[in-house]
């Protein structure tokens, strides 16, 4: 199966190359030429598989130039019981007969990014070996908080790679910051940026597109790649857990095979929910895909009106990993919905770059609306949702999941609903305690772990408990204009 650029369908490369390159030179994202199908019997067979087998099956449909042994090695190395706290990396919890939660935060960094970033470095290094390149891969990451740590953890001491993470200096929580700045590993670097996530993301994209920078790297024996969700190697592992949740619910007798499930997805860069749409295109019996945004509700407006307009105030919210005004993966949806029309997609993206907005034609809008619903929660509603989930179901959710929960509880469907839970409540303890009622008047976020634990009885994840006494290794920050310079310094160029 070939991969093409969303901005130039003539660019055709293998899946391994797509994962190594990350982003196409024309600025487009790589997409498979067509979406493969999973047969009804394969779907049924999944009910008896463990997560690793499910992952291997889904990945084999997309990564056709990887051998069976390579995929086996990647999935088995990634989804271990040690890293994911048991044999169910993505368990489904039942709230009541209609509502379920898919918990995606049992990995090493307690956010759903681990689901992809534990396997993506393996897919990447396998791809590099195939191409027999001797260059060191440089991973540049822009993070709104969770990707950075998950990528650092995934690439830590992976041979043949170096990773540098840029995060918005004042845009992440204390826990998130400490997770990153205390990162171990010989090949890791972390840099704060004076700006928000979009500044970090634009900065990284600019570096990728700067021929002067890439030439200098190449001379030094380096080549760039990206671990952001613009990389296909990030996206494809996320398709797996939609199937896995479905198979689990068939297995438990909660649904019959063929029944439709709605998925409600707390959304920022549109990666997670796009993976759900791809699962549906492959044959997963999904009903509505519900895009849940926080106060930065550019996607809600887009799905409702067809106008994507980032010319608006940017808010720093209690769900920081969704504080995004440029949702990169939407480009992939536009590509599919326009019938793989690279010219049209290029036009939209040019207009986004020039004017900060674009509007899709009514045919595309109709198609989008037939698959997606959208809603958002403001700050107050998010906190209230945390309280509501706790009061009603004795279930503790983080603020990102709470955005999904609020949106889920506010629309009617005949289908059962699965809310994607994207972070452990312990990653954002302050808002969680505010939601369920309790004292948050402490000196630092880490004291909140004990308060939350005493109140709810939910265990503190070991990787977070350790942070309290961890030493920060990386305390530097820079202006966004200095990002290329920081890359040179990191690489010793
Ligand atoms: C990244 C993230 C999201 C948003 O996911 P996208 O793929 O960017 O839409 C939601 N919640 C949490 C906790 C995250 O880390």
What does this structure look like?
The chain has 493 residues and is of the alpha/beta class. It has a domain of 222 residues: Rossmann fold, CATH 3.40.50.1100. It is built from 22 helices and 16 strands. The strands form four sheets. Strands 4-5-15-10-11-14 form a six-stranded mixed β-sheet, with helices on both faces. The chain has a five-stranded parallel β-sheet with strand order 9-6-7-8-16, with helices on both faces. The chain is globular, with a radius of gyration of 21 Å.
Task: List the main descriptive attributes of the protein structure presented here.
single chain; 493 residues; alpha/beta; Rossmann fold; 5-stranded parallel sheet; 22 helices; 45% helix; binds pyridoxal-5'-phosphate
Question: What is the count of DSSP helices, taking H or I runs of 4+ residues?
Answer: 22
CATH architectural label of the domain at 86-110 and 233-429: 3-Layer(aba) Sandwich
CATH topology of the domain at 86-110 and 233-429: Rossmann fold
The portion of residues assigned to helices is 40-55%
User: Structural class of the helix and strand makeup?
Assistant: alpha/beta
Overall shape: it is: globular
Using the CA coordinates, give the radius of gyration. Answer: 21 Å
What order do the strands of the largest sheet run in, or round the barrel if closed? 4-5-15-10-11-14
Low-confidence stretches: none
CATH class designation of the domain at 86-110 and 233-429: Alpha Beta
Give the distance, in angstroms, between the N- and C-terminal Cα atoms.
37 Å
Beta strand %: 15-25%
Task: Calculate the mean pLDDT score and round it.
Answer: 95
Q: How many E strands?
A: 16
Bound molecules: pyridoxal-5'-phosphate
> Main sheet?
6 strands, mixed
